[in-house]
Amino acid sequence: MSEHNLSIRPAVRSDYDQWLLLWEGYNAFYGRSGESALAPDITRMTWSRFFDAYEPMHALVADSKGRLIGLTHYIFHRTTTSIQPNCYLQDLFINEAARGRGVGEALINGVFEAARRAGTSRVYWLTHESNLKAMRLYDKVAEKSGFVMYRMVI
Could you tell me the end-to-end alpha-carbon distance of the chain, in angstroms, rounded to an integer? Predict the structure, then answer.
């Protein structure tokens, strides 16, 4: 995608309707749709956190001529192994029609830049082991840490 047609920028309140379509697509990709969809209050709270100066959660969008074609959400958090915070890239989603055109890499680079500005020394993220197409991009822009995630829903 031409740089002239794409800008990576922070989400603004007027992006909500277009962001919501992307957010729903992201959630559907991970099986959170229909009966397993996120509750609407979670989506509303997530959106509101992006505009709360006391929250460490942020959103970038990929804008192509006024149309949002991708999103990423990231969170700064403290760590026991560094004075500077870490940056967790939590969500990344590209509209299917825009995939394979550099949008995902541009969004990831947008998070890298935000992390640099914040004085963060590390950006990390997770993906499902079946997300092979995304992992081809991730292998290009970062290194695998070797860690395996465990979780327990409480």
Answer: 43
**CA–CA distance, 19 with 54 (Å, rounded to integer):** 22
- Residue 1 pLDDT exceeds 60: no
Q: What does DSSP assign to residue 44?
A: H
Task: Say yes or no to pLDDT of 4 above 70.
Answer: no
> Is residue 121 scored above 90 in pLDDT?
no
pLDDT tens for each residue of 123-143 = 999 999 999 999 999 999 999
Coil, helix or strand for 61? strand
Distance CA 23, CA 27 (A): 6
50: which 2 tokens? Answer: 């992006």
Helix (H) / strand (E) element for 10: namely: strand 7-10
Q: Which tokens go with 117?
A: 């500005």
**Cross-strand bridge partners of residue 60:** 10, 72
Cα–Cα distances in Å, from 143 out to 64, 75, 147?
29, 19, 11
Q: Whole-number mean pLDDT of the chain? A: 94
Q: Which of 115, 95, 107 has its CA nearest to residue 61? A: 107
**Statement: residue 122 has pLDDT above 90:** yes
Alpha-carbon distance 72 to 8, whole Å?
10
